[in-house]
């Protein structure tokens, strides 16, 4: 059976990475494939979103470097909320340098990302060394990495052979690379000796039920297009939720739309 036709829980067993299995199971437990892109710039707003939206999401996605009053207590409180509401934390760092540099960026500096973020992401642009560097830090901590195989923005250069190479890099590092940021489930010819396609998670940004895009190149599609037509696993929604007058009501709508599309995909 193709991976996207199996339930999230059934797929959990084929991942050795504990973060991937945990995510897949908690999605079915909480009945949500919604991730919030919490792109707010104060500690108070970020924690408020995590607390009020926590029950409806599987992944809380941060851009920690946009928080003006960042401090260690923010991390402590965010981790407590992740426990309380059972969601994973994803720092959307988009690493893009050589292995030796990203290793330090991931573990050191002001943010110590590896110490609190279950998932992070990286551009495959520099080549496989970026994965090796991040893996040295992240694997002992059971973290998971997503590669940016495609982007949602207009004119993105991440397409075609570039995206396919991202999949091949991921196959060679399946202990740490749990999936992709992408716009659709990618189908790449099997490597010599491979009998079936490896399963990977696809987390997809550029989701809105109201807008076709923004003024800076972002392009939006609906939850149904992402989960059903493009066979991705998680919808990542930012302004469509936190920018609304009632974020909890909006999160409920996106959660229901994403879940209905998943059930349709499974044929239930
Ligand atoms: O829903 P929005 O447009 O308000 O926010 C989308 C979020 C932002 C982006 O930094 C991020 O998703 N994003 C990413 C990620 C998650 O890596 C990749 C991409 O191709 N497009 C994109 O918007 O936090």
Describe the oligomeric state of these chains in a short phrase: single chain
CATH superfamily: Aldolase class I
Instruction: Supply the number of helical segments.
Output: 10
* Overall shape: globular
Gyration radius, to the nearest Å? 17 Å
Structural class based on helices, strands and sheet pairing:
alpha/beta
How much strand?
A: 5-15%
**At the third CATH level, what is the topology name?**
TIM Barrel
Name the poorly predicted regions: none
Q: What is the straight-line distance between the termini?
A: 16 Å
Number of separate structural domains: 1
Total beta strands: 8
What molecules are bound to this protein?
6-acetyluridine 5'-phosphate
Q: What does the main sheet amount to? A: 8 strands, parallel, barrel
Give a written overview of the molecule.
By secondary structure, the chain is an alpha/beta fold. It has ten helices and eight strands. It is globular and about 50 Å long. Helix 3 (43-53) packs parallel to helix 4, helix 5 (99-107) packs parallel to helix 6 and helix 8 (223-229) packs parallel to helix 10 (247-266). Helix content is 39%, strand content 14%. Strands 1-2-3-4-5-6-7-8 form an eight-stranded parallel barrel, surrounded by seven helices. The two termini are 16 Å apart. The protein has helices at 8-12, 18-30, 43-53, 72-85, 99-107, 129-138, 161-171, 223-229, 239-242, 247-266; strands spanning 34-37, 59-62, 88-95, 119-122, 144-148, 177-181, 201-204, 234-237. The model has no long low-confidence stretch (mean pLDDT 98). The protein has one domain: Aldolase class I (TIM Barrel). 6-acetyluridine 5'-phosphate (6AU) binds at residues 37, 39, 63, 92, 121, 148, 151-153, 181, 205-206, 218, 236-240. Belongs to the OMP decarboxylase family. Substrate binds at residues 39, 61, 152, 218, 238-239. Pathway: Pyrimidine metabolism; UMP biosynthesis via de novo pathway; UMP from orotate: step 2/2. It catalyses: orotidine 5'-phosphate + H(+) = UMP + CO2. The active site is at residues 92, 94, 97.
